[in-house]
Amino acid sequence: MKTAIALSHGHAAKWLQVILYTLKKFSNERETDIFVAHTWPGHPSIKAITETDLADNITIHNCKIRLQSHATGLDEVLDLLIDYGQYDYMFCAETDAMACCNGWLDWFHQMIGSDPVNAERNKFGKCGMAGFFWHEGNNHYNINPSGTLYLIEMLERYHNEVRKNTSDIFWHPNGNRMGTDGGMDPTIKKVAGVFSETRGIENPSPEQKNQILKGIPQAAWFEPGAWLYYRSLGEYSHIAVPCDHIYTQFGPVTSPEGTYYGGKANPKYIHYWGGTRAYDFLKHPINDHFVSGGAPYWLQREDTIWKAVVPEKYRKIMPQIYEEMNFEEKLRTNLPGWEKVKELVK
After folding, report:
1. Is the pLDDT of residue 196 over 60?
2. Contacts of 343 (CB under 8 A, 6+ apart)
3. pTM for this structure?
4. Residues paired with residue 89 on neighbouring β-strands, in sequence order
5. 316 within 8 A of 277, measured Cβ to Cβ
6. What's the mean pLDDT when you consider all of the chain?
């Protein structure tokens, strides 16, 4: 059996080259295949790999169920993996991330593997996931799929459960909502999968209820992979891998510098955050002060990392892609403070 490495890509072309180049550069003992869920089919940014050999021997899946959705992209890759029947683990990555060394994925497998002296790992017989435990404020208290190794057996079980659920109720200990209520999504019952489910848990156990209240303030506020984490509590063990999750100042906003899996001094994998939000200007004018404040600096960071990591033979295609994306026009029109990154459109 093999491990599938899956990521959702929408429009961040430079980050896409960073993650694909590093995934191919570093080796593991574990046999792997790479899957890219293209959440914006037809968008020119995918050419960052398809017009180079970075796309060789990977599967690019054009999403159909729901477009421009990170979580649904992972759901659709999982559908493929279940059909293929060749994989026992799925590693969920991000585009604004990179593998850092040989054996990086083997390290995740060591984290999730059975260890007779570790009672927590064997508490329920199997460990379902190993990743960064995101605990901040009252909106995050779970392991999210930004760099997490999942047991396929568990994913398939809960994925089928979600797909069979035709309920229009969004359950939450503080009050339930209906899909027809204002602000709710009446279509979720037709499109949800294990990573995109937001309808909560009808009869949560005390442990599930306690942790949902720590991380989900109200009905439907489940971020990608959050429902899966809460649903599997009490049935599978979870490993919070050692990480340094570091914040820094990006101009007027404070946001993650990165999550360093294995520690900043010797990371196995890094998730930088902000890579997708930085490109919101491609879709609409930016009125969110957090995004408008941080995006110019996130774009500069992306460019710096891209130039340091990706060889020129891959980078040289980017001016053509940016022209096809109408990058400069949309940057000038939709992103306040775009002048801070005007060098990116020269």
Report:
1. yes
2. none
3. 0.96
4. 3, 151
5. no
6. 94
